[in-house]
Amino acid sequence: MWLLDLYTAGCVLRWLDNGGTLDSKNSRILQSCIEDLDRAIPEINEPAGAQYCQRLHQLAVLVSRNLTRTT
Fold first, then answer.
1. Fewest Cβ atoms closer than 10 Å to its Cβ: which of 2, 10, 31, 46?
2. Which residues on neighbouring strands pair with residue 69, listed in sequence order?
3. CA trace torsion 21, 25, 26, 32 (10° rounding)
């Protein structure tokens, strides 16, 4: 989970630093993080951990929907 958090946060920071753009590699990484979070969240039994991951997922989805992809 900590790697998933790290990769998601890294993509979000890159998106912020680059004015709403991500290259194709980071776009793929972000999409993979979203898919992994979709699978992981239902398996988390600790409420605070589940809430954190749900917020992380929501952030990743919002960035994914609002990004400009570069090559």
1. 2
2. 22
3. 130
* Locus of tokens 């980071």: 26
Angstrom distance (rounded) from CA 17 to CA 63:
13
For 1-71, strand residue ranges (E) read: 21-23, 68-70
**Cβ-contact 15, 21 below 8 angstroms:** yes
Q: Identify the band that residue 61 occupies on the pLDDT scale cut at 50, 70 and 90.
A: very high
pTM over 0.85: yes
Q: Give the Cα separation of 7 and 56 in Å (integer).
A: 11
First to last CA, the chain: 29
Q: 44 and 14 in contact (C-beta within 8 Å)? A: no
Neighbours of 32 (CB within 10 A): 15
